[in-house]
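Thread: Newbie trying to understand structure tokens

Hi all, I'm a second-year student working on a class project, and my supervisor (Dr. K.) asked me to get a predicted structure for one chain before our next meeting. I've only ever worked with sequences, so writing a 3D structure as a token string is new to me. If someone could post the tokens and maybe explain what I'm looking at, I'd be very grateful. Here's the chain:
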Amino acid sequence: MGKKQHQKDKLYLTTQEWKYEFGGHKDSHSRKRKVEFKRLPFSHCSLSLVPYVIPVCCPEGYLFDHETIINYLKDNKTNPCTGKKLSIKDIVKLNFTKDKKGNQIDPVKYKPFNENSVIACIPQSGNVYDLETIQELSFKTGWMKDPQTDVPFQRKDVIILQDPNNLDKFNIEAFLHVKKDKKKKLEIEEEKKLSHRADYYFNSVSTEAQETLKELEKEFSSQKSTTTIPKSVQEIDKFNSANYSQGKVAAGFTSTAFDPVTENKPAILDDDTVKYKLVTSNGYVKILTNVGHLNLELYCKAAPKTCENFITHCENGYYDNTIFHRLVKYFLIQGGDPTGTGQGGQSIWGKPFKNEIGGDNGYTHSERGMISMANKGVDGTNQSQFFIIFRPTPSLNGKNTVFGKVVGGINTLKTMEETETDGETPKSVIKILSTDVIKNPFKEAEEQLKKERFEMTDEGKAEKEKSNETFKDMHTKVFSNDVGKYINPKLFENIKKKSTTENSEVSRKKKNITSKPYSDFSSW
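---
Reply by user tm_fold:
Sure, no problem. This is what the structure looks like when written as tokens:
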């Protein structure tokens, strides 16, 4: 005997049976369903989308408010929902029968209309019935007259106002005037976006719960933004592939928290790391102040991150109209803070970055005019402020990143140093008027990287082959089958002709020389 053979012999109904077989509450009426399918209620006008006052309909069965549709048809001769031709003469005024509570009912059976009722009207009288009433009293008996007024009609005249098996007529998004109305369309799209949020389905949420949900959403969005990898880094090529693996094979083999991976892949380097490898030259910037100009040489290869931050700020005009807020005689002058307080400033990445000391950067605070980054005394607090030293300061070595040197405008630096101060604040304002980037090695590196990556593509290879002259005329002509078969014999003919002409000229010159024979001694 099969298992659960008497499943339907039980004396109670399951949830599934009640829901799908006995008219129980279905999930199709949930809030999510309402968002996916914006159904217009039967009591609403299809044009204004609000409850109608005087109900009318068109031959296609769309319900409208009398005043709204008449005003619309005066300027437009089409159905606002379908775009088909429609005139005022085609409009049918509807007569609904209502009970004491104001609900629309069938006038014969007194059966209330609901979402599952098949509702129809007879256009000759405008009376609205349940379709079953018309079928039983007219279609089956052949008495083709209105049950209330005895007005004759034909089967084809009956207009279906609502059919639960065909609800496309009540889909608001399918209405032509809604598609053309950008405002309504945006409202529907925004509601669909909100439907993906969990709090959209809450009927009532306390203020504490709302605040908690907002905090969680902020944390999740920030984590999502920090963990997403740019598209440019996701693809591995010969430029951004590291000489070490991602470590996923070992992690998947030793921990059940990771998915098993059987193939080692190289780790992907950041775009900045790849770009910095191609930087080989120094950068140059000219700073114009109200006391003169300064020419700066930047050590881009030694401190690439610091130099890129400084050069980008100069290109963007970040330092324009900022002051040197700190001046210590025989020590340094400091600027780069847009607030002018020494507490502000931001890097181009929107967050502090670490020092670049040691390694490739062997520069120190060894002479006058060296440029260094200002920080809060802790590694990883560099932003936009910088300072220029007036004399060697070995005490700063290992604490601040040296990234350049003043190579022009020594007199300007002297003027700055001689400015009177009030404590560590200059009495007279020393302002950066503008900055001019003369050479930016980082842009050159980006263009080079972009060019080399393009040359690796099929399109780049084809373009290179087309433009490269070494690929043209690859087939060398063969002039003979002997030794020197690729040498053009005409070249030898030209050489022979040239040699014979030279010999003849020499002989002619020799013939023109007049000399007497040795036997003639008349001149003696």
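A couple of things are worth pointing out once you decode it. The radius of gyration is 45 Å. Residues 227-233 have pLDDT under 50 and may be disordered. Feel free to ask follow-ups in this thread.
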